[in-house]
Amino acid sequence: MTRDTNAQTRFQTATLGYPRIGKSRELKKALEAFWRGQSNAETLIQTQHEIELSHWQTQQNAGIDRIGIGDMSLYDHVLDWSIYLGIIPERFAAFSGLERYFAMARGNEGIPALEMTKWFDTNYHYLVPEIPEHLQPADFSDFLATVRRAQDQLGDRAVPIILGPVTLLRLSRFEMNQSQAASELCDRYVQLLQELKELGVAEVQIHEPALVFGDAANFKENYQATYQSLSQIGLAIQLVTYFDDLGDNYSWVMELPVAGVSLDFTRGRNLELLQQYGFPEDKQLGAGLVDARNIWKIRPDVLQSTLDIITGVTTNLRLQPSASLQFVPYDAQRERKLPEPLLQVLSFAEQKLEELQLLATHLRQPQEAETSLEAIRGQWQAFQDFSPVNQGVQERLQRLSSQDLERPLPYEQRLQQQPVLPPFPTTTIGSFPQTSDVRKLRVKLKRGDLSQAEYEAAIDAEIAKCIQFQDEAGLDVLVHGEFERTDMVEFFGQQLSGFAFTEYAWVQSYGSRCVRPPIIYGDVARTQAMTVREFKVAQSLTDKIVKGMLTGPVTMINWSFTRTDISRREQAMQIALALRDEVADLEAAGAKMVQIDEPALREGLPLKPERWDEYLSWAVDAFRLSAAIAQPQTQIHTHMCYSEFGDIIEHIERLDADVLSIENSRSNNETLFEITDAGYKNQVGNGVYDVHSPAVPATEQMVQQLKTGVANLPVSQIWVNPDCGLKTRSWDEVIPSLKNMVEAAKVLRQEVELTQK
Ligand SMILES: Nc1nc2c(c(=O)[nH]1)N[C@@H](CNc1ccc(C(=O)N[C@@H](CCC(=O)N[C@@H](CCC(=O)N[C@@H](CCC(=O)O)C(=O)O)C(=O)O)C(=O)O)cc1)CN2
Ligand code: MET
Ligand SMILES: [Zn+2]
Fold this sequence. Notes:
Elements: H1 5-9, E1 12-13, H2 26-35, H3 41-61, E2 67-69, H4 77-84, H5 97-106, E3 116-117, E4 126-127, E5 130-131, H6 141-154, E6 158-163, H7 165-171, E7 173-174, H8 178-198, E8 203-207, H9 220-231, E9 236-240, H10 250-254, E10 260-264, H11 270-277, E11 284-290, H12 300-313, E12 317-321, H13 340-343, H14 349-364, H15 366-386, H16 391-399, H17 411-417, H18 436-447, H19 452-473, E13 477-478, H20 490-495, E14 496-500, E15 507-510, E16 513-515, E17 519-526, H21 532-540, E18 545-551, H22 553-558, H23 568-588, E19 593-597, H24 612-627, E20 635-640, H25 649-655, E21 659-662, H26 670-677, E22 683-686, H27 699-712, E23 718-719, H28 731-756
Parallel strand pairs: 1-12, 2-6, 5-7, 6-8, 8-9, 9-10, 10-11, 11-12, 13-18, 18-19, 19-20, 20-21, 21-22, 22-23
Antiparallel strand pairs: 3-4, 14-17, 15-16
The protein binds the ligand Nc1nc2c(c(=O)[nH]1)N[C@@H](CNc1ccc(C(=O)N[C@@H](CCC(=O)N[C@@H](CCC(=O)N[C@@H](CCC(=O)O)C(=O)O)C(=O)O)C(=O)O)cc1)CN2, methionine and zinc ion.
Family: Belongs to the vitamin-B12 independent methionine synthase family.
Function: Catalyzes the transfer of a methyl group from 5-methyltetrahydrofolate to homocysteine resulting in methionine formation.
Pfam family, one: Meth_synt_1
């Protein structure tokens, strides 16, 4: 058979970024050793470079034609770009080098870090650039050095990844006037492209995910002017978008002066837009066909129909993951404990690289790909026969009526029957320090050095210590501390049938912190009580109320890898049923309060506002389904960090939780004001201190904050709590902080008594 050489160079493959934490979390370990003072900067940087090199080699060996480089980061790539561009707030002026880098990431001796935020609908936290009145000089030398290393390893295959100037602006906080910032930054990007050109770079990726936001049109002129300037340098610019479609902005984006546009074909309506409006002849399409946000192998037949449509419009295309692969783990083949039929249909980053090559082969020489594609079809068939179907759960969902989503009495009447506490009741959000001693217990259990009974006894000892501390500190509503949980989502995934959990499938959440999202691979059902044992242990040790502690259905969905054969709504409702039974069991075991956490409710909002109502309607229903089983006298709490609520307050009300605890401290009570402005009637715990900082909050500081609460809400609505769980803190920090918090509540109680006399 003769080969068409032209066909060999067409349909190239490209990547848009790779995981960063290291296959065995080498970067996490190196960072934490450095922060503990157990290693030095040189060792840290060397580890970073070794991990980066291994990523390049993996992609090179997989045959990727255009490898995105420069996205490796010691903490967060947005922080890296802030520093390259000279976006350095005044308060960090006294620092330099790595010290400044980590001060901006994590704070330093009373100097607060940059804010962290989830810009998009993922569980990854970005640092928020603060554009000061005056920029520091730009310094691209670290980035350029990375480019040179990549060129040595990869030659022309290395394509620098650049955080887009308009996306950066769209997501920053400002002291400088915005349009001035836009123009100063644009000059710096021009300078960067110039310097890259001098290194012999021919092509760059500029990532502008903000183009998929509902408000992208407001920035149209900025995009046009910026790309006009950047195009002057003469590099081939790949304008990269992902996470959703371009919507109404499709046409003008296609006219920007760039060499190529990358679109995500795994989410949103880009395929329809492509069909409707076509694709410019002079541009290359970066086709995001392999899902970079989920862990399933490609479905050859689904993909074929997508490919047919795309190639009907343009054949000037590259095959790509839909986004950076940072959202998926490294290698499915490393997992040893998953059932074979499931393992066979899993695709993590390394498998996705193979899939890209397979698709390229399929387009160039169809017959050469057929055996592999047929094998994948067979694996999916085998998986379908294997994946658990639960008729009982399906029928139960079908039988549901609106009554099942309704608490038996309205809030005002429930309130009469619920526990009476002092004003300004104090509590915590659930977790207490996950010390390395606690984690080692699980390592020993796994190795067989501890029996299940010994493990449970050791957990119970932690619970006892935790209850005793809370009692002594004078907290009003206690928690057991969540010591038995690796993670609030993974733990429930480990208990529920229809969920699989992994050994090595870590995904970075922020900095050195990672999660192993569990995998939903069939109908979800509860096979036994999940939290009752630890609840009972805790409640048996105190006369005070212990809150039962559950992770809500929406958060379970948003922080897991989900099925693609049924809707997210249906998966959430299945989980809600399991939680509903757990609520009933906790109640039967004596729980007077049950907290159902929904920190990911807000994050799951679609990026386009026109899709919000659809999401919120099922998301709130799922929460209600899990909670509504509770008797009126049982108080239902929920907790949300990341909680700008102003725009969804009516949905928050519809949750109908008796008590809502929220994050606040980094956002100056804004969330509280949103709630009070909206006339929220139920109880609110407006976090009185920031758990993400190691600083011990002073009593006075929390008193001041509570006073803001009193000025805006009736005392009867106010709770006192930290703004999130304490698992990442140490006992040294937690003990004095909570004592001060209780003290602050007491100060407020006295003041209220005085004013009532
Ligand atoms: N899923 C999820 N998403 C979330 C949050 C959350 O709590 N869960 N919170 C918000 C902030 N995100 C966070 C994400 C992760 C962590 C976190 O602390 N992660 C831990 C891992 C937790 C875990 O799974 N621990 C396991 C495994 C721990 C481990 O690393 N074991 C060592 C050995 C034990 C040792 O010697 O320490 C090893 O395997 O090498 C356990 O406890 O069993 C970490 O990165 O360190 C914190 C916040 C938003 N998103
Ligand atoms: C990210 S929200 C955390 C809620 C959980 N109950 C905890 O305290 O850790
Ligand atoms: Zn939280």
